[in-house]
Design brief:
- By secondary structure, the protein is an alpha+beta fold.
- It has two domains: about 110 residues, no CATH class; about 110 residues, Copper Amine Oxidase, Chain A, domain 1 (2-Layer Sandwich).
- Helix content is about 25%, strand content about 25%.
- Strands 3-2-1-14-13 form a five-stranded antiparallel β-sheet, with helices on both faces.
- A hairpin with a 2-residue loop joins strand 7 and strand 8.
- About 10% of the residues have low confidence.
């Protein structure tokens, strides 16, 4: 057998072994979930990997519940039962009991407690050791890598690209990159409710001067704004930080 053929065969074998190891690891997590909560046997949660992932095959980034699990440390689902991972107003165990996905805001028990929610992660992926470059809006994964990269913590708040915050909380905005000051105009119901400038600690809320918690920053051509200033103060969202996994939920009733 030729050298190149041997290399190709060996490479293929390594890929297959890696894939099998991943599948078995995923199965172990799933088996632990069903062992912890036998009532889930045969339910929709038992049939896919959507309890912890955004897609049913169980690959790619994890959803809020999955991020909690991977950061918990002891592989114990019961350790974070009383936490509301996806920001829908119901704890993880309440969702498990209702057989709804605890990591998916769009799938919750009745009645619905919140209309909208945006979730940011400021932890690192425990497997890749890289920043998590997705956020969640209404239960859907949003790739923020093209918007300047991962959200990050600074002086007790989250700095995140403005677009998923604004879109996810039902508002609109225009970032005037040509303006020498780099101005973001935020509208809700057709009315300008906030204005922020890159590098300026002074903004405006409903036409009045406002002292930003953190001055907006520019990442490439993208404006990062404090979620406290934009989501909470400008758009009226409630902020809930989950220390385990460094998850930040912003929801609206």
């Amino acid at each position: 057998m030729k050298k190149n053929t041997l290399i190709a065969v060996a490479t293929t074998a390594l890929i297959m072994l890696g894939t099998l190891a991943f599948v078995f690891a995923q199965q172990d997590y799933h088996d632990e979930l069903i062992l912890t909560y036998p009532k889930l046997k045969g339910s929709k949660i038992d049939k896919t990997c959507l309890c912890c992932h955004f897609i049913q095959e169980g690959t790619g980034p994890r959803n809020p519940y999955g991020v909690l699990y991977e950061n918990e440390g002891s592989a114990d689902f019961a350790a974070f039962e009383k936490i509301d991972a996806d920001g829908d107003g119901y704890t993880n165990v309440q969702e498990i009991n209702a057989k709804t996905y605890p990591g998916d805001f769009s799938d919750s028990p009745s009645p619905r407690k919140f209309k909208k929610c945006v979730t940011f992660f400021t932890s690192k992926d425990t497997k890749t050791k890289k920043d998590i470059t997705v956020c969640v809006a209404g239960g859907k994964k949003v790739d923020i890598a093209p918007l300047g990269g991962a959200a990050y913590e600074k002086s007790g708040t989250v700095m995140a690209p403005w677009k998923p915050v604004v879109d996810g909380l039902g508002a609109t905005a225009i970032f005037n990159a040509k303006d020498g000051k780099g101005r973001l105009d935020v509208k809700k119901g057709g009315k300008v409710v906030a204005q922020f400038w890159v590098g300026k600690a002074k903004g405006k809320l409903n036409g009045k001067d406002y002292n930003c918690k953190i001055a907006p920053e520019l990442k490439g051509k993208n404006m990062f704004v404090s979620t406290f200033d934009l989501a909470v103060k400008a758009l009226g969202a409630t902020e809930a930080k989950i220390t385990m996994g460094k998850i930040w939920n912003y929801n609206l009733k």
